[in-house]
């Protein structure tokens, strides 16, 4: 650890300079009380550009070398999924706080090892569930928490793309590197914001199905989604759905698709039916977080009182990084509640969905 407690400035590093890593860098740069002092990536041109743009004094090709550097307080992990566990555990073992991109890991076993490392080190392990910081999600959460819709009993949540496979043949399409297809990639976001909106009910069982209808034919890739190319085969699903039974008799349907024959724009949505009202959230171009709308359906004095809710600003990565830094700054008493357990619960549900799909049966948790 550095002398941040006396200097007042946290010293952080970022590992990985793809789109996500660049979001972390920009967020740290926009906030006070933090300094990015090191960055690691395999691409020399990205390292040079980041160092110049953000005035970063130390650059590394190997993440192992970065973690050997003294004086760090925290690290952001924004690399392919198969590296999340080894990097996070190594960083935690060195006494560093960790902010990892989603999903937590390829599976719940790896995720459990990360949580155990955070607990053993007494450090923060947070995961970037940035979509729960969207303005429309925050607004709907406040409406649900206020009881305006009564008791929710059914919800449906989706993230669907027309041509959104992240480069056919990249690490994304190799289950040994990614952990799966859209269910673990973007579906984990859908699962997270759905359970968050519903108040974190316990999951009783899942019944899921996966399909590889387009990617296996070399279809469904698009210029908006990309990753470093390789020669990996397409060995994951391109569409998944899961029917999830929750405590209290609530049911949730989750859909996640990289590719399907539908309208061109991404769709991120959430519908909920409650005893006193319902809501429909629809965001086109979900990857850009634009054009969102939130409609509320309810009655007053037995008359239709539907309305379109006013949406506050989105938080996204900036909000995630701000909360991560605030948790660190709050001191050791706050760290135990941020050990990665919530992200591990998501990983456990995703694992159960894949098991259900493979064995064509309901899986109880």
Describe this entry's structure for a reader:
- This protein has 365 residues and is an alpha/beta fold.
- It folds into 2 domains: 148 residues, NAD(P)-binding Rossmann-like Domain (Rossmann fold, 3-Layer(aba) Sandwich); 180 residues, Dihydrodipicolinate Reductase, domain 2, CATH 3.30.360.10.
- The chain is 34% helix and 25% strand.
- It is built from 13 helices and 16 strands.
- The strands form 2 sheets. Strands 7, 8, 9, 10, 11, 12, 13, 14, 15 and 16 form a 10-stranded mixed sheet that branches. It has a 6-stranded parallel sheet with strand order 3-2-1-4-5-6, sandwiched between helices.
- The longest helix is centred in the C-terminal third of the chain and has 19 residues.
- The chain is globular and about 65 Å long.
| Overall form | globular
Percent of sequence in beta strands: 25-35%
Q: Number of DSSP strands? A: 16
What is the CATH architecture term of the largest domain?
2-Layer Sandwich
Helix/strand class: alpha/beta
Main β-sheet description: 10 strands, mixed
CATH topology of the largest domain: Dihydrodipicolinate Reductase, domain 2
Number of discrete helical segments:
13
Query: Which percent bin holds the helix content?
Result: 25-40%
Terminal Cα span: 39 Å
Q: What is the number of domains?
A: 2
| Mean pLDDT metric | 93
What is the class of the largest domain in the CATH system? Alpha Beta
- Gyration radius, rounded: 21 Å
Low-confidence stretches are: none
Task: Encode the helix/strand succession as letters.
Answer: HEHEHEHEHEHEHEHHHEEEEEEEEHHHE
